[in-house]
């Protein structure tokens, strides 16, 4: 699954981030359900928000910043993705697994959108 990621993109285009994450996940879940397929949902460590407890747990309460700060739109949209996946699981018996990724990197990733690892490598 693809998601709108990168700090700069999240700040510059929160509508794209929210729509891509939530509508994209909903489409994938509907398709998986209609074809009786298991689904893996790629979530994010951003879900933990301003959590200070370490280590993190998927059962921890979350504290996000204000809705007036677009930086939190990514974490909130990925949380909705998780809620939606769990709803499909409970209500429609769709087998789902959610995993929360921390810093990811790939061969074509650049620091253009604020991704941290390519910026470190390029420094």
Topology:
Blueprint: H1 7-12, H2 14-34, E1 39-44, H3 73-92, E2 96-101, H4 116-122
Parallel strand pairs: 1-2
Helix pairs in contact: 2-3
Written overview of the protein:
The chain is mainly alpha-helical. The chain has a single domain (7-104), classed as Rossmann fold. It has helices spanning 7-12, 14-34, 73-92, 116-122; strands at residues 39-44, 96-101. A two-stranded parallel ribbon has the order 1-2. α2 (14-34) runs parallel beside α3 (73-92). The longest helix is centred in the N-terminal third of the chain and has 21 residues, at 14-34. The model has no long low-confidence stretch (mean pLDDT 85).
Strand order of the largest sheet: 1-2
Largest sheet, in brief, is:
2 strands, parallel
Element order: H for helix, E for strand: HHEHEH
Termini separation comes to: 30 Å
Going by helix content, strand content and strand pairing, the class is mainly alpha
Q: What is CATH's topology name?
A: Rossmann fold
CATH superfamily: NAD(P)-binding Rossmann-like Domain
Look at the structure and give the mean pLDDT.
Answer: 85
- What's the architecture in CATH terms? 3-Layer(aba) Sandwich
> For this structure, what is the CATH class?
Alpha Beta
Uncertain parts: none
| Total beta strands | 2
Helix content: 40-55%
- Rg computed from alpha carbons, rounded to a whole number of angstroms: 15 Å
Q: What is the total domain count? A: 1
Q: Tell me what portion of residues adopts beta-strand conformation.
A: 5-15%
The shape is globular
Number of helices: 4
């Amino acid at each position: 699954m693809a998601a709108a990621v990168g700090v700069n993109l999240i700040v510059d285009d929160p509508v794209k981030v929210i729509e891509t994450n939530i509508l994209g996940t909903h489409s994938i879940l509907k398709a998986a359900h209609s074809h009786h397929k298991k689904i893996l949902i790629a979530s994010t460590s951003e879900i933990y928000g301003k959590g200070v407890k370490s280590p993190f747990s998927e059962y921890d309460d979350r504290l996000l910043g204000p809705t007036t700060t677009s930086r939190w739109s990514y974490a909130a949209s990925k949380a909705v993705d998780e809620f939606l996946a769990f709803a499909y699981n409970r209500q429609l018996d769709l087998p789902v697994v959610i995993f929360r990724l921390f810093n990811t990197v790939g061969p074509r990733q650049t620091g253009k959108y604020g991704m941290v690892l390519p910026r470190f490598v390029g420094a």
